[in-house]
Specification:
28% of the residues lie in helices and 18% in strands. It is built from 17 helices and 26 strands.
Length: 677
């Protein structure tokens, strides 16, 4: 509008500048897209605060939004609404994290400078590398020189001390580090962090254990196939597996959207015609995080000769991609240099799990608790606990959190306890150094002791006491690639040998990943932290359809029909550090030739257990109850676990369109509590 001097409305110079900035500033536009609500733009003071944080920490708008998402999860904020006061708290949180990081780097540098002090060459009982700079006593040095190299003949699995002994607390104090607090002194033990389906009442524990198990286990995947020979991968086989996955999804998309095969084409070929291209998301760079500039589509051999073509996402209002994701894209490659995406087609989901009315009725009868139960008794809901390792803090091998959850399972007579590894963590400082004692009651041959001996005398006793107190309980153990006693080092992972572990016969060890049924409930579980890696590698831009980080990363698994859809996995250097050695964890250790063993087959699981270092949660996503129980023990303190109360079905009348089958709808019948141990 052109204003005359007589106009009632005037545009000031400040207004003109604001309009010009709004129209010309892409950063401002991106901030409004990511932090704004609906079509309402951000207030000027909010924009100023966001720009201040970006300048101070040299962050892009996307990186700032990622940090904002993490902060909202950390502060348990449901709505991503930015205000000036909240952003100032957010800025302080970033600053505090930066200062903690700088302090830790200073400590590392100090340790390196003091490393020239003469020391005994072999560890010398230094658990955390905290004795650097302390001169070894002459006696200790002479003893170490004279001692021949042989297996210790005492009950101590430890190198001989090379310096004056210091208490663990003194070692932490010498570095200015706060030592882990005592497990018995933990705060808020038993507090409930989150509840799903709060309207369902938690079941009262029975007066005594049931006379027989109320759970029937049925394998949903072939566990014998996990016994493949690891570290024998052939590149030709791996390439075929990756290519076959693209072809399978192309057929699924064709059937789901009712498309003819002529609608599909080669995204790498120059053409003005609009086609549907199915392929795998990848990056054109081996290093760095996926971004819009490095985004490429890897085609199948049949449709595109396996070529990679850059993707143009400018026409999309929002998108979310990660390396390894199979996508169906509608667009064209008119220039011959890039494929311009017009639309991302929806991938078909697996059908929901269902059972016949007779099968469901049989499971309900089993809930009555055996032949001693009265026919008039209402079935008691199932009580199941889910927990994930590590099961002890970094400063000890007492496994107090494991004992605590086993006591909880024994006291409340739960029906099942599902534990995922790692049980004896390869990243634990004491395990890595060999500086620990076995219990005094341990009876073993020192010359033949292995890590299975450690499991037998440190982990198995807690589980054995649980089974003795609650004989009808079902206990399941799922290994991890971080388990030091596992001889199968690749994922997908075979069970670890139980012969020398001292486990009760009723305890079952299953593969990783595994799909199985507890009565009618189909449960999928994998111990690897795939959610963290997806969070670390994903590319989210524009107005993403799912702005909740935890829901979005969980949805990837369901849409991709796989327990580990990411390829390649995250670089080990970018994973959360362990407390041992250089702090680099083993990572996913994928055996690509056997990735099909990680697929979800035929139907969606009713419940998906995905232990992760991300905040614990229980969410319903595409009719799947997704649970992250968290870790039972964090490196310096206690963690969390999940408690499920599953009520029996009440409707046994199938719909005419369902073919006589009834969907389980576990997400409607299960109360899930995330609880502090």
């Amino acid at each position: 509008m052109i204003n005359t001097p007589n106009s009632q409305s005037r545009i000031t110079q400040e207004d003109t500048n604001t309009i010009a900035i709004t129209m010309a500033d892409p950063v401002l536009e991106e901030l409004n897209e990511r932090f704004g609500s609906g079509d309402k733009p951000l207030e000027q003071d909010v924009i100023a605060e966001l720009r201040s944080i970006m300048r101070m920490h040299q962050l892009s708008a996307q990186d700032l939004f990622f940090k904002w998402e993490s902060y909202c999860i950390k502060m348990d904020m449901d709505e991503l609404k930015a205000s000036v006061q909240v952003l100032r708290n957010f800025k302080q949180d970033i600053q505090d994290a930066l200062e903690r990081s700088n302090r830790s780097q200073v400590h590392i540098k100090q340790e390196k400078r003091s490393g020239a002090t003469p020391r005994v060459g072999k560890g010398g009982g230094d658990v955390f590398g905290m004795l650097d700079g302390l001169t070894s006593t002459p006696g200790g040095a002479r003893a170490s020189k004279a001692a021949p190299r042989k297996t210790p003949t005492t009950n101590r699995v430890k190198a001989e001390p090379a310096s004056s002994p210091l208490k663990l607390e003194e070692r932490f104090n010498s570095l200015g580090v706060v030592p882990p607090s005592s497990f018995n002194d933990r705060a808020n033990a038993g507090d409930t962090i989150e509840v799903l389906n709060e309207h369902l009442q938690p079941a009262d524990p029975p007066i005594s254990p049931f006379s027989e198990s109320r759970i029937k286990l049925t394998a949903g995947s072939d566990q014998k196939k996990l016994g493949y020979k690891p570290l024998a991968m052939k590149l030709s086989e791996a390439s075929e597996i990756l290519d076959d996955r693209i072809e399978e999804f192309m057929n699924l998309v064709m059937e789901h959207h009712g498309l003819d095969e002529s609608a599909f084409g080669n995204a790498a070929s120059q053409s003005t015609s609009e086609i549907v291209a199915v392929g795998r998301i990848a990056s054109d760079s081996l290093e760095g995080k996926l971004n819009a500039a490095s985004l490429v589509l890897e085609t199948s051999r049949r449709m595109g000769g396996g070529l990679r073509v850059p993707l143009n996402v400018k026409q999309l209002q929002g998108y979310q991609f990660f390396p390894g994701q199979i996508v169906a894209l509608k667009g064209s490659n008119s220039s011959g240099r890039e494929f311009a995406i017009k639309e991302v087609l929806e991938l078909p989901l697996l059908p929901n799990a269902a059972s016949s009315p007779d099968t469901l009725q049989t499971h309900v009868e089993r809930l009555r608790g055996g032949p001693d139960a009265m026919d008039s008794d209402d079935p008691t809901p199932l009580n199941i606990l889910f927990a994930s390792g590590p099961y002890t803090a970094d400063d000890n091998l007492d496994f107090e959190p494991l004992h605590a959850i086993c006591n909880e399972a024994a006291d409340t007579y739960v029906d099942a306890l599902v534990l995922t590894g790692p049980f004896v963590d390869i990243g634990h400082p004491l395990i890595a150094s060999g500086d620990f004692d076995l219990p005094e009651e341990a009876n073993y041959e020192p010359d033949t002791a292995t890590m299975a001996t450690v499991f037998k005398y440190m982990v198995s006793p807690a589980i054995s006491r649980l089974v003795s107190a609650n004989p009808s309980i079902t206990v399941l153990l799922v290994p991890s690639v971080r388990d030091v006693l596992s001889k199968h080092v690749s994922w997908p992972q075979d069970v670890f040998p139980r012969r020398e572990l001292g486990l009760p016969k009723s305890v079952k060890v299953i593969g990783n990943p595994m799909t199985f049924a507890m009565n009618e409930m189909l449960l999928g579980i994998s111990s690897h932290d795939v959610l963290f890696e997806l969070r670390n590698e994903e590319l989210v831009g524009g107005r993403s359809k799912d702005r909740d980080l935890l829901s979005r990363t969980s949805r990837y698994l369901i849409e991709q029909r796989h327990f580990f859809p990411l390829f390649p996995p995250t670089d080990r250097q970018r994973l959360p550090k362990t407390g041992a050695g250089d702090g680099v964890p083993p990572g996913a250790m994928l055996d690509v030739s056997y990735l099909k063993l990680g697929e979800m087959v035929n139907v969606r699981p009713d419940v998906l257990i995905v232990p992760s270092s991300l905040p614990p949660f229980a969410k319903v996503i595409e009719s799947v109850l997704v649970i992250n129980p968290g870790y039972l023990s964090k490196r310096k303190g206690p963690g969390t676990y999940a408690k499920m109360t599953l009520y029996p079905p009440k409707n046994f009348q199938p719909d005419a369109a369902s073919g006589g089958m009834l969907a389980h709808k576990i997400f409607e019948r299960a109360r899930v509590e995330i609880t502090r141990i």
